[in-house]
Amino acid sequence: MPELPEVETVRRALLPAMQGRKITAAFVGRDDLRWPLPPDLADRITGRHVAGLDRRAKYILIRLSGDEVLLLHLGMSGSVRIHHTPPQLAKHDHVMVEMAPDATGQPAFVVFRDPRRFGWIDLFSATAESQHKLLANLGPEPLGNEFSPAYLAACLKTRTGPIKTVLLNQQLVAGLGNIYVSEALFRAGISPRRRASSIRGVRADRLATAIIDTLRAAIADGGTSLRDHVQPGGDIGYFVQRLAVYGRAGEPCPTCAAPVQSLVQAGRRSFYCSHCQR
DNA sequence: CTCCTGACCTGAGTGC
DNA sequence: TGCACTCAGGTCAGGA
């Protein structure tokens, strides 16, 4: 479900609810999601303060006092909701943390829901972060300084697969998923079937810019709500209204009005305009 | 290395 | 209503 913009939306919403506050209680409703949860997770985070919240690719990193890091990945169907009174937990609400009241006396209850349980949670020492199996091999952040047209062009140069599947590789660029790859390729006017190594020069520049612009616009709208994603405050992600091609097979291309096409590549659906994207 | 498939899991939607 | 089937925003392990 959640790609970079949705995860960033969650992080930003969690800031006021968690940053600088103490975890006063934690509930963990099962012992595994995609993988086993850390043993004694609830006990190990209760009583700690939240020093900060970062995002890396599609992971949220909650920095706790005592140099511990609580890592959260939302998988396909994960979502986070913030409540200010004790919520009634539903079937797929697996974890809840209660935060000490803020300056106005308002507590916060942060609930992690994940019906398909493709998400995961880990807890580890901050010193182990750079070697963490899930973090160590991630490529640069597309909205960070390391990502540039030159970097992208260098990555694509040796890749023989279609650009659609190459851009889903988190080791090259971290945080893109199925929605934003389709949208960025549309913005760049590049066909999802095009061999990655054939994208050079101006086309690579245009693609890098399209990736950045698409992600920024989606973050500004609170992400894209299709099925599961809601912002932690309960709002939908409004970028769904701006999708040009994703999920719109048969509808008119917003540029040329030709019907949007779709195909499956490496098991994932792609959407594109065969007239505007070459 | 790179590329693809299958696996993990539930729920929503569709067609009969 | 019910059943069978397909598909869904991710990514890892395993094999070619």
Describe the structure.
- The protein is α+β, with helices and mostly antiparallel strands and 278 residues long.
- The chain folds into 2 domains: 128 residues, Alpha-Beta Barrel (N-terminal domain of MutM-like DNA repair proteins), CATH 3.20.190.10; 124 residues, Helicase, Ruva Protein, domain 3 (Orthogonal Bundle), CATH 1.10.8.
- The protein contains 6 helices and 10 strands, in the order αβαβββββββααααββ.
- A hairpin with a 2-residue loop joins strand 2 and strand 3.
- Helix 1 runs parallel beside helix 6, helix 3 crosses helix 6 and helix 5 crosses helix 6.
- The longest helix is centred in the C-terminal third of the chain and has 20 residues.
- It binds a DNA duplex (16 and 16 nucleotides) through helix 5.
The CATH homologous superfamily name of the largest domain equals MutM-like, N-terminal
**Major sheet size, sense and barrel closure:** 4 strands, antiparallel
User: Would you give the CATH topology of the largest domain?
Assistant: N-terminal domain of MutM-like DNA repair proteins
**What is the 3D form?**
globular
Report, as a whole number of angstroms, the end-to-end distance. Answer: 28 Å
Multimer state? single chain
Q: How is the largest sheet built, in terms of strand order?
A: 1-6-7-5
* Radius of gyration, taken over Cα atoms and rounded to an integer in Å: 20 Å
Helix content: 10-25%
> How much of the sequence is in beta strands?
15-25%
State the helix count: 6
CATH C-level of the largest domain: Alpha Beta
Averaged pLDDT, please?
A: 95
Instruction: Estimate nothing, just give the exact number of structural domains.
Output: 2
What is the number of beta strands? 10
Tell me the CATH architecture of the largest domain: Alpha-Beta Barrel
Output the helix-strand order.
HEHEEEEEEEHHHHEE
Computed structural class: alpha+beta
Uncertain parts: none
